[in-house]
Amino acid sequence: MSRRLRPAPDREVFLTGAASGIGRATAELVASHGSRVHLTDRNGPQLDEVAAGIRRSGGRVGLVETADIADHDAMHALATRLTAEYGAMDVVMNIAGIAAWGTVSAMPHETWRRLVEINLMGPIHVIEELVPPMIDARRGGHLVNVSSAAGIIGMPWHAGYSASKFGLRGVSEVLRFDLARDHIGVSLVCPGGVDTGLTETVEIAGVDNASPRFRKARERFRSHAVSPEQAAASIVRGLERNRYWVYTSPDIRMAHLAQRYFPPGYSAAMHVLNRAANRALPDVQRARRPEVQG
Fold first, then answer.
1. 86 is catalytic
2. CA pair distance 149, 158, nearest whole angstrom
3. pLDDT attached to residue 210
4. 205-215: per-residue pLDDT in tens?
5. Of 151, 246, 120, whose CA–CA distance to 189 is shortest?
6. Strands, E, within 115-262: which ranges?
7. Which residues are registered as beta bridge partners of 91?
């Protein structure tokens, strides 16, 4: 069945991670198209600034609430208030997430757990609270889940991050078919490099973020990254065109095509990428988690 979606000025759109980066840029772009946006993020002051900026620009803002998507009780309460006041959403956009990388030897257990709780369980909490009202409203809609290039390909030191992003990809792959009979489309967004605040705060277990070697690698990454505004434009374009796979840069599209249609080339490229990463930041290989006594 085809998706049904009301015109942009009639839409109620809920976004997570709206205080910064891709979430902020997407909220501002969606609001500029006339939709009423409902915003949440863990950073309350920045979230209020975004909401105020949208209003100053003539955009419509509904609910603005600080919340941790990893807290199911908090998301249940937020969703209950949102639906009671504004009805079912037309578009739900799962954008919030964290990034942390490291080898199996270096990454602490707590980091693995946090990645899954925020990047996978967080979107699941949003889906289970806000998608059923969309189904009950019987007017269609759209669900956007922001995964990552690390939800497609085997990037170096991304095992924990990829666990969460591949998981969200799996949820999306099922829902694209499960929700078709309810005329709800699904988009899976797989950004590559995006120059957001995460480039400044990303954790790499066992690496000194202040080291000259790390700073050089980070600047090289940023030189190839798209802006949050460019990523937002790709997301909204994918939403409007009812695309399932949404890429924010052509390099990730090409890597995905190689993985699917030329596996030997993909495998060779991943080996080269891994060796290059290990040469750039060799200290990550020597780092070890502290031993737990007792």
1. no
2. 10
3. 57
4. 555 555 565 55
5. 246
6. 141-146, 184-190, 203-204, 245-247
7. 13, 142
Place of tokens 């419509």: 60
Residue 71 vs residues 24, 74, 76, 123, 202: alpha-carbon distances, Å: 21, 5, 9, 11, 22
Q: Where are the domains of the chain?
A: 8-286
pTM of the model: 0.88
Q: Report the distance separating Cα 59 and Cα 37, nearest Å.
A: 8
Kindly report, residue by residue over 134-155, the tens digit of the pLDDT. 999 999 999 999 999 999 999 8
Task: List, as one string, the DSSP characters of 73-91.
Answer: HHHHHHHHHHHHHH-S-SE
Task: Give buried/exposed letters for 236-261 (b at 16+ CB in 10 A, else e).
Answer: bebbeeebeebbbbeebbebbebbee
3-class SS of residue 49: helix
Rounded-to-integer distance, Cα 26 and Cα 4, Å: 21
Whether residue 82 is predicted with pLDDT greater than 80 in this model: the reply is yes
| Active-site residue (options: 161, 244, 247, 266) | 161
The per-residue pLDDT for range 214-271, each reduced to its tens digit, is 555 555 555 567 999 999 999 999 999 999 999 999 989 998 999 999 999 989 988 9
* pLDDT at res. 283: 57
CATH of domain 8-286: 3.40.50.720
Q: How far apart are CA 89 and CA 86, in angstroms?
A: 8
